[in-house]
Amino acid sequence: MLRPLGFTGNRLDRADQVRVDPDAFSAAVAHPRALCLRLDGIDFAAGEGGGLVWEPLDSADGHALMLLGIDEDGTPRFVREAPSGTRIDARSRTVMRLIPLLSGEELALYGGARSLVDWHARHRFCAVCGAPSTLFRGGWGRRCDACGAEHFPRVDPVVIMLAEHDGRVLVGRQPGFPPGFFSALAGFLEPGESIEEAVARELWEEAGIRVRDVTYVASQPWPFPSSLMIGCRATAEDAALTLDTTEIEAAMWVDRAEVRAALAGDMGAPFMVPPPLAIARHLLELWAE
Predict the structure, then answer these.
(1) How many Cβ atoms are within 10 Å of 12's Cβ, its own excluded?
(2) CA–CA separation, 230 and 48 (whole Å)
(3) pLDDT digit string, tens, across residues 94-136
(4) Is residue 101 a contact partner of residue 60, using CB atoms and an 8 Å limit?
(5) Which of 28, 142, 191, 206 has its CA 20 to 30 A from that of 171?
(6) Which domains, and CATH codes, for the chain?
(7) pLDDT averaged over the chain?
(8) Residue 225: cis peptide before it, omega within 30 degrees of 0
(9) Per residue, what are the HEC states of 28-59?
(10) Residues 244, 247: Cα–Cα separation, whole Å
(11) 16 and 24 Cβ atoms separated by less than 8 Å
C-alpha cells in the first residue's frame, strides 16, 4: 500500500452552507472555539514541535477572514487575508524545507490555505473593470462593487505522466533541477483540450514521441501556487527522442531495476527521484511495483 499523496486528505467539512450565509458565517467567526491559522505571508509559521500553529480567533484584527472549514469537533477554522503589500513567494524554498515537519493532515490543510491566500493576494482588482474587489462567500470569492462581477479561486490543471516503451519509462529534467535529478514530464492543459489530448501533446512537444492508451492514475493538489497535478501513464509508439531543449535539458528511458535503485537511494542509480511529497515519485513507485 503506497503512502497517501501529499496535500491530500483534508478532513475538514468545507461548510459551503456557512460560506454562502452571512449570518451563519458571522456565527462561525463568533464561535468561542474558533481558530485561525498563523501564516508568514503564505508560508506557515512552525510551532515548537514543527507543526501548524492555530491561534484563538481575534475577529477584530482588521484582516478579512476566510473559512477553511469546520473540524470534527465543530470548531470553525479560518485563515486571514494577507495584508496589502505582503511579499508573496509562490515557490518559497523556506516552506519546502519546513514541509517535512507537517503531518499528512496538516499538509492538506496548509496546502488549501496557502493557495487560497495566494489567490486573494494576486486578485485584489476586478479582472473586468479594474476596480478594487472585496472578499465575499466566506472568503471563497471576490466581488467588485463597481461593476458587480464575481470572481472565484482558480485551479490550474497540469498533466504529469510516465510514457512507457518496451519495459522502460521516460524521465526528464529541466535546467533548474538539482544535479542528477529526473522526474516525470509535465505540462499545463490548454483551453479546449482533454486530459488525454494534453498528455499526448506535451509528450510530443517536449520529447518528440507519439503515445496511445493514455490512462489516469491519480491527482494531487500542488499549492505552488495553485495547480492540480493529474497523474497519467501512456504507451509510446517508439523510443526515439527529439527534445525541446527550451523545456527539457535531458531525458532518458529507464527500466524497473534502475527505477527501483533510484527509489532506494542507491549510490549507483542513474538518477535521483523526486521527494516522497510529489506525485511524480508516486507514479514511479506504482510503475516499479
Answers:
(1) 18
(2) 35
(3) 788 888 889 999 999 999 999 999 999 999 999 999 999 999 9
(4) no
(5) 191
(6) 16-151 (3.90.79.20), 156-288 (3.90.79.10)
(7) 94
(8) yes
(9) HHCCCCCEEECEECCEECCCCCCCCCEEECCC
(10) 6
(11) no
Burial label, 117 (beta-carbon count in 10 A; 0-12, 13-18, 19+): buried
Grid cell digits, residue 188: 499545463
Rounded mean pLDDT, 207-215: 98
* Residues in CB range of 283: below 8 A, 6 or more apart: 160, 161, 162, 184, 217, 218, 231, 233
User: What is d(CA 138, CA 116) in angstroms, rounded to the nearest whole number?
Assistant: 12
The H or E element spanning position 282 is: helix 279-288
CA distance 36 to 57: 5
Task: Give 230's Cβ-side CA count (13 Å radius).
Answer: 18
Q: Are 244 and 173 in contact (CB under 8 A)?
A: no
Instruction: Take residue 54 and report the three cell numbers written for it.
Output: 492555530
- Residue pair 41/86 in contact (Cβ under 8 Å)? The answer is yes
Distant-in-sequence, close-in-space partners of 235: CB < 8 Å, separation ≥ 6: 163, 164, 165, 211, 212, 213
Q: Could you tell me the pTM of the whole model?
A: 0.93
Q: How far apart are CA 112 and CA 114, in angstroms?
A: 5
Instruction: To the nearest 10°, report the CA torsion of 184, 185, 191, 193.
Output: -80
